[in-house]
Amino acid sequence: MNEIVDIARKHGLKVIEDAAQAIGANYRGRHVGNFGDTGGFSFHPLKNLNVWGDAGMIITNNPDISVSLCELRNQGLKDRDTWTRYGHNLRISSLQALVGKHLIKDTSDLTERRIANALNYDKELRDIEEITFPQRMIELREVFHTYVIQAERRDELNKYLNEKGIESKIHYPVPLHLQPATKYLGYKKGDFPQTEMQAERIISLPVHPYLKEREKKKVIETIKEFYR
User: How many domains is the chain built from?
Assistant: First the structure.
């Protein structure tokens, strides 16, 4: 991120930092979302901190950007009777705000549980040759919104886990350049071989903070059983 920010400053660009899935993560002691001009976080029900519905947050240290964002989220209103721009209704409800205020105090503890679950997978599955793990960086505190590995015979493994009652997922099976929405760009299969290879191998394992010990053991033993 430091290099990206340096390039942006050199060319007079703004940096919008997408930290949607990374609340609580930090790099070299600095929390994500604080590197760019703005940082965006998601409070969707599937994120590490959620408010029981669609919601999000943008942070910034720039007063001008802050004013613009506040107006944009509230129909473009500067005050009750003054519109300064076209805006949107992007306000979360009072109930959602109350839920978020209640849950945020537990975020650190729940994140530590996610981290422990992920590192346990790293340890217990590392001897399986058919599995490749992401590189872990000592200066990076990951929060494991998902726990993603690369696996040989991925589709078979996913089916096997599901049949055993384990909810593994594939995020995402079709790369962006092969999606219908990007067809007009003219990309074809083979244009991004590394991306396509990853899409054929990645699989997400359960990592949520409410996993019971017996459930974690079942995931590990079932994967070992599959590759025996």
Answer: 2
The range of the structural domain enclosing residue 204 comes to 106-227
In a domain, residue 186? The reply is: yes
d(CA 169, CA 148): 9
Quick check: helix, strand or coil at residue 57? strand
Instruction: Quote the pTM value.
Output: 0.90
Give the burial class of 213: count Cβ atoms within 10 A of its Cβ; 0-12 exposed, 13-18 middle, 19 or more buried: exposed
Q: Exposed, middle or buried, 126 (CB in 10 Å: 0-12/13-18/19+)?
A: exposed
pLDDT at res. 70? 95
* CA–CA dist 68, 86 (Å, integer): 11
What separation in angstroms does the CA of 148 have from each of 14, 171, 206?
Answer: 30, 8, 9
CA dist 207 and 145 (Å) reads: 8
Judge whether residue 1 has pLDDT over 90: no
Give 149's contacts (C-beta < 8 A, 6+ positions apart): 121, 125, 131, 132, 133, 134, 202, 203, 205
Q: How many CA atoms lie within 13 A of 160 on its CB side?
A: 17
SS3 state of residue 108: helix
